[in-house]
Amino acid sequence: MKEVQTLGVLPLGRPTFDVAFAEEKLAAMLNALSATGKTLIGPGRLLMDGEETEAAIRDVAAAGPDAVLILQVTFTDAVATMRIASAFDKPIAIWAVPEPRLGGRLRLNAFCGLNLASHALGRAERAFSWIYADPAEARIGSELAALFDGARQVSPLTGTPPSGDSQAGQRIAEGLDGKRIGRLGAHPDGFDTCRYDAKKLSGLAGIEVEELALQGLFDRAGEVPDAALSGIRQTAEAELSGLGDVDQDQLDRSLRLKAAIDAIRQDGGYDAFAIRCWPETFTEYGGAVCGPVSMMGEARVPCACEADVYGAATQLLLQAAADAPVFLVDLVDMDADDNTGVVWHCGQAPVSMADPATKPTATIHTNRKMPLLYEFKLKPGPVTFLRLSQARGRHAMIIATGEMIDRPMAFTGTSGVVRFERPVADVLPDIMNCGLEHHMALAYGDHGEKLLDVASALDLPVIRL
């Protein structure tokens, strides 16, 4: 982005997050940009839907800026980012903003939006620059200067040939052959991270995918007899406090999803699921699938959110390597000064991952306000992260190891603060450079060497974060 004098600025947001807080952050971002002396072109307000984003793109394009900066103020899917990338034959950059770890809801979740955008741009082979920084930081001027000077452009990582080789790795790889994933509904628009090709996945690991209608899950849940719910509710009561504090009709609907998933699994012989968990489970069905997903994961039938088929395949692989339940996480914050990251999902981690110092709590989805979600802090201990990745249109195995540390809960839902084996200052740019998907599977224990052996058996290049 060298020699930028006029800058097109397109701020992206979503109304399901904390709009007032997002507007505060946007104002600070625009002030920091104004202080650079560049001419800013753009609406100066959050773009919340497709129609106003398209109008803003047209207006900015008509002004002919030297470069375009996307302000990732809250989480958004990658639809707007890819539309902007296709509309401008100019350098583009993304500035995503952190939020404080206060133990409450994710008010912005902007890092996850950056993660989605990075993957989508990488698959499209579109160069971009990025920063992840608070506009209130004292060094924000130097961060922006580095961005505009071209020092923060992605440098694609494609991985190195696997070096491991063992019979254990071969057995794990062979054990994937014939595993079946039931995909319940299609992934949401703009979630390029969840795209998949069934033939390529079968060719990679022998995993089969069967596409099922999401409405079939809802219909099956409606057929569950009341008597069949008693055992499921007893399990939830034993695992959670506060079950009686949530809406009981919505709780009943949520628990029926657990029974329905079990029935579908038995009928189809599925080993894992990829479920379109929102918005329809809330807007059309009326109960969250997150709690049932936690129960299924604890029973070693992993379920991936947002119909992420490769996420489910990754869970199956890591579950086999760890011989333990797995959790599909979003990475929602990276703090180089503290040298930690935060992994999170709304409330669906297997309950065996809960910190034993506190009892898990029944709660509601922070945006959609329906139960059942499991809320707890992840327990301390060594952890391994894995993704069977399709970044930049090529298969790779992305591995990270680290330690879940004993910190207060960063955000509601199921979350934990992790210290990676490598410094965050190195891990963060590698996440952008490799185009990592926004979902990684997590298991307790250090399984890095065993996964290298599996990568060798599957002939997958490896990226170590």
TrEMBL record:
Record keywords: Carbohydrate metabolism, Isomerase
Lineage top rank: taxon: Bacteria
Domain L-fucose isomerase C-terminal positions: 377-463
InterPro entries per UniProt: Fuc/Ara_isomerase_C, Fuc_isomerase_C, Fucose_isomerase_N/cen_sf
Family annotation (Pfam families): Fucose_iso_C (PF02952)
Name of the protein described by the UniProt record: L-fucose isomerase C-terminal domain-containing protein
